[in-house]
Amino acid sequence: MTKKGDMLYAWTNDAEIKKHAELGGAVTALWKYALESKAVDGVLVITKGTDLYDAQPVLVTDPKELAKTAGSLHCGTLLLPKVVKKYLDGAANMKIGVTVKGCDAMAFYELAKRKQINLDNVIMIGVNCGGSVSPVPARKMIADKFGVDPNAVHKEEIDKGQFIIEFEGGHKGISIDELEEHGYGRRSNCRRCKMKIPRQADLACGNWGVIGEKAGKATFVEVCSEKGAALVAGAAKAGAIATEAANPKGLEIRGKVEGAMLKLGDKWRKKDFESLGEGKDRLKKIMSETSRCIKCYSCILACPICYCVECTTKNPVYVRPGELPPDFMFHLIRYAHIADSCVNCGQCEELCPSEIPNALFMHAQQVELEKMFGHVPGLDMELPLHAFVEEKAERARLANTGSDMIYENVFNPVQKK
Amino acid sequence: MGALANVYSGYQSVLVPEMKKKMEDAWGCDIAEGKVGLTVTTLINTLADEPGKVKAVYIMGENPMLSDPDIHHVEKGLKNAEFIVVQDIFLTETAQLADVVLPATCFAEKDGTQTSTERRVQKWRKAQDPPGEAKVDWLIISELAAAMGYAKQFPYKSAEEIFTEITKVTPSSAGMDYARLEKPEALHWPCPTKEHPGTPILHKEKFSHPDGLGIFTPIEWKPPAEVPDNEYPLLLTTGRCIWHWHTGSMTRRSPDLEREEPTGWVEVNPEDAKELGITDKEMVKAITRRGDITIGARVSKDIKKGVVFIPFHFVECAANILTHNALDPVAKIPEFKACACKIEKIKEA
């Protein structure tokens, strides 16, 4: 009887899935079962687009189409939850399964808190993520540092701290540390990330801790919720996957790998945030970098925390229209509204055409706010420090409390009279 | 792409008999004797000043009623034409004058390629079907050609087939195909063979002349055709702003872009403004020998004393009502950037 908290090795017996799978193919097998048993209406996953460097999101509704989505693409730098909000109606009327990295899982919760996604209709299978590499820098890295034509690479992976490529005529691995020493490697926000095993998803899967005879052939599955337990139990009963308890030594190793990755995250946070300086120096640096802004709105469109229909940056009272670069107020509005909940997903930086280190700036502020107020975004449904309200409705609510003690009433809402 | 009046694709001259023969063989038809045709600007002058010489005009994706100099003159010219066809995605100011309007497709509604002034050729990938009866541009042309009896010469079933033909008759694109264009960096022409990596930077080692040397041409300074004088004491220069593209037929339909700059303005130096007795945002009249417009003033140190600037995107205060269609003798480019102007305070009645 699978239950929340179980640690398992899982693998598929489906030959087609096995062919494409990185390890045990458990994630793909679970999705296939979920579709076939109608536990979900569709599965939102990543598939290879034009080439190895092009990760395309795809909503799969035919279980037969799933096999080719197995495996991993380390150049998949996109964030899925806002796709669900914008194009799948926030899962209001459709049950969706989504494979999530740590940042995807955190973004889902932030969107759910703001009533933009119905999490009851979403099953999240989390995957361990050591970080992703932006596609065009990845190609440059492979050409310049590996000395290989990026078009000749047919497989890439990150394993045991190395970026490894397989190409016509061989394979080559270089340590991530060395690559990042020379300005290559993972995205800046990924290096700072400490959400390596997304336990707020329904299942957390990966290859860390799979040792013994199942090494390379099974997926580690940590059951994180009742929903996850039901999915695994159903899939095992239907023969879609086979499971066995995880090797305790493997569990220990998994813990060690996670620990090492978290330490690495701490090291990069220290380095990145210290490089920003403090006080006026930090402000000067931020004002200088953001002066390249061309108001393309990519950061705002991509940010999982941004959901206002009428963005305050479009209010001419705050930001004079027609000006480029926009007044620094444009960015101050972003910082004021987002910093408490930033999950360091990095999309604002990944998509900025002016290469402004937006995620670095926002994340630097988020860690300070976390120290001050103790709120950790992206873990659960704990409400953020502040949120958008409609003025009239909020004034009415406060008036109904019959009290003029605003602070008390905002933080300890009194029932309507 | 052969859309100029003097060349086939790849800048191959229509005057060179070998080029004409090559195209006749490729297209399977006769081609009239090679002659340089009318440029966009000389066309309007011919229509206006020599009525009857040009009978019909077929305009694709261009809005001369707002983008050409001396709009009153443009209107006179277009109204002299017997027959005007406009193929566009919106009913522009020019389309309003057309006898037939053919609705075409925007970038998101068609496959194909675009080539920038960087010489980079990039793929377009259709994302959605066009609305209503709008048709993809190459199909409109093919169907028209068929109606004229040239169905055989326009048998295309896809944009890719047309691209393949381009590469067959254009040596500088001969090495390109859709598969090679799938990479983010795509290909720069010249790309003469399938193995050639394309040419991101031209003239790296030498210039195109036989001895590899470049030719410098000194230019004698000449004033613009019309310079400021006592009657029109200011120099009017026109141009763009980052938020709008050309006549705004697309950008002014975007709420976000229109919000940034919802209408035009005339930039006036603070000293000139003081002399004229006008203040920032005040509605003023801008007048040249060609016409006048009412427009809001933007008093700013960003414009030199003696010079005023008006962006040309906004039909309600169209800069090109004022501009001069004096043309450069070689390229026939109009003097959008310099003519004589005066600004007048609007006195309440």
The SSE string of chain B, one letter per element, is HHEHHEEEEHHEEHEHEEEE
Q: What's the alpha carbon Rg of chain A, rounded to whole Å? A: 23 Å
Q: Care to count the β-strands of chain B?
A: 12
Largest sheet of chain B: 6 strands, mixed, barrel
For the residues shown, what is the average pLDDT of chain B?
Answer: 95
Residues in helices of chain B, as a percent range: 10-25%
CA-based shape of chain A: globular
C-alpha Rg of chain B (nearest Å): 23 Å
Supply the number of helical segments of chain B.
8
Report the structural category of chain A. alpha/beta
Strand % of chain A is 15-25%
Question: How widely separated are the two ends of chain B?
Answer: 55 Å
The major sheet of chain A is characterized as:
8 strands, mixed
Termini separation of chain A (Å)? 48 Å
Question: Order of strands across the widest beta sheet of chain B?
Answer: 7-11-8-10-9-12
Describe the model.
The complex is a heterodimer of chains A (417) and B (349). Chain A has 417 residues and is an alpha/beta fold. Chain A is built from 16 helices and eleven strands. Chain A has helices at residues 15-20, 26-36, 81-87, 102-113, 135-144, 176-181, 188-192, 226-237, 248-274, 279-290, 298-302, 329-338, 347-350, 358-373, 391-400, 406-411; strands at residues 7-12, 42-48, 55-60, 96-100, 122-127, 153-159, 162-167, 170-175, 203-206, 219-223, 241-245. In chain A, the strands form two sheets. Chain A has an eight-stranded mixed sheet with strand order 3-2-4-5-9-10-1-11. Chain A has a three-stranded antiparallel sheet with strand order 6-7-8. The mean pLDDT of chain A is 93. Chain B has 349 residues and is α/β, with parallel strands linked by helices. Chain B is built from eight helices and twelve strands. Chain B has a six-stranded mixed β-barrel with strand order 7-11-8-10-9-12. Chain B has a three-stranded parallel sheet with strand order 1-2-3, with no helix packed on it. In chain B, strands 4-5-6 form a three-stranded antiparallel sheet, with helices on one face. In chain B, a hairpin with a 4-residue loop joins strand 9 and strand 10 (292-299). The mean pLDDT of chain B is 95. The chains are: A alpha/beta (417), B alpha/beta (349). Chains A and B meet through loops of A and helix 7 of B.
